[in-house]
Amino acid sequence: MGPDVTSSSLFKVQEGQRMLGVHPVRNQEAAEIDANRDQVLQDSEIRDFLIQRGDIPDLDKADVDVGQVVSDFKAHLRKEQPAALSAYHSYEEVATELEGLAARFPDVAERVSLGRSPEGREIWALHLSTGVRGGDTLSKPGVVITGAHHAREWASMEVPLYLAHQMAEGSTSDPEMRRRLEQGDLWIVPCANPDGYEHSRLEDNWWRKNRRPLPETGTSAIGVDLNRNYDDGKPEHATLYRPVGDLPGRTDDDFGRATSDNPRADTYRGPSGASEPEVQALIQLELGRGNIRGVLDHHGYGQMVLYPWGVTNKPVENLAEYRRVGEKMNKVLNNSFRVMQSSSLYATSGGSHDIHHANGIFSMTLEIGRSFQPDRTQLEQIRKSVAAANLVFIDEVLASHSNPTPTTPGAEEGYLLA
Ligand SMILES: [Zn+2]
User: Which domains are delineated in the chain?
Assistant: First the structure.
């Protein structure tokens, strides 16, 4: 806020009729974008840059508000925050709201810290179930709902928070909500990446990774892509984190830019599998607790319901089940989403849903909204509709205790592309 951008800035962006200076710390980035070297960054140049960098996904598959994404990126270039900032909760506000829900509904809700981020923030979960204090909830099938692995995907934090409110507040008045809390052991983790989320809110709205310095890489780079860092340490699942033929420390064998060994890349997988404290904390809950049968992870954006695999375009063995549940979720989203295999958007490794699926957990990813930071009006609508889709997912897992046979895609193949 209050940036010292002046008319003396080297590069400018057009905002309506006005020309605004790019913040000096973004000059290097601006030089990359300025295709025709006129020192004015046209919307079309910015759009092409974001497509080339992967910040705007395949427009034939994802639903994208290109104008909004370009506009939010201009805020990044000016080192300002988008106007939508005030519509979103801070990390501290989330912590306080979860604490408040646990205090108001002590019979069904408790706030639990899953661990600490590198900068020392607690990774808070709201644990929801009847008998949550002192009772047996471990014998019930568990579902974990997560958000904000990626710092800049702000709406992905708001949906789980909204759901936490709905479930706790509905526990006394809504028989269906009560039933879910009686049947299930539910864990809602709105902010998987608290350091990154706060950095994105306050310093750089385009920040994606966590905020851990990476001295072990011998660079001054910061941050690992938490949704490329999942690994359970089982040798038979090693290729879910690092496909065969992809050598550590080499970037020429990274597939596209979707998962990288370059510490400076936005999609850096980390020095080793599950190297990051945030990922360790979530895996401990999701795989370690022993009763988790479903994991639903939120990301932004593109309006897609994604199911495994991300690492290969081979179909999962229970494809029909994933498609059935995905389409049912899409129905409450007014069929405004597309249901597809994750790898058909782009192949990734180390993703949350792959490692869960390989461990017999029914796991999907929602790409919500049409930009990283939807405005207040869009956010309102996203919260309600996507929370309804969450309830469909939870009901399906509780009804079937979906538990596909643990599998791994052909370990010898590495990325298998269409
Ligand atoms: Zn994401």
Answer: 12-80 (no CATH), 87-200+274-400 (3.40.630.10)
Distance 291 CA to ligand 1 centre (A): 26
Q: Are the C-beta atoms of 164 and 108 separated by less than 8 Å?
A: no
Cα(66) to centroid(ligand 1), Å: 17
Ligand 1 (single-atom ion) residues, CB below 5 Å: 150, 153, 299
How far does residue 298's CA lie from ligand 1's centre (Å)?
7
End-to-end CA distance of the chain, in Å?
Answer: 45
pLDDT along the chain (418 residues), means of 10: 56 88 94 94 96 92 96 96 96 98 98 98 98 90 98 98 98 97 97 98 98 96 98 95 87 78 95 98 97 97 97 93 97 98 92 96 98 97 98 96 54 44
CA dihedral 61, 347, 403, 273 (to 10 degrees): -140
Structure tokens at 340: 């597809």
Cβ within 8 Å of residue 22, ≥6 positions away: 5, 9, 10, 11, 12, 13, 30, 41, 77, 78
Compute the distance from residue 148 Cα to the ligand 1 centre, in Å: 7
Report how far ligand 1's centroid is from the alpha carbon of 93 (Å). 22
Distance CA 353, CA 356 (A): 5
Report pLDDT for 2.
47
Query: How close is the Cα of 225 to the center of ligand 1, in Å?
Result: 9
C-beta atoms surrounding 413 within 10 Å: 14
Residues near 363 by beta carbon (within 8 Å), at least 6 away in sequence = 294, 295, 296, 297, 307, 308, 352, 353, 356, 357
Q: How far is the CA of 29 from the centre of ligand 1 (A)?
A: 22
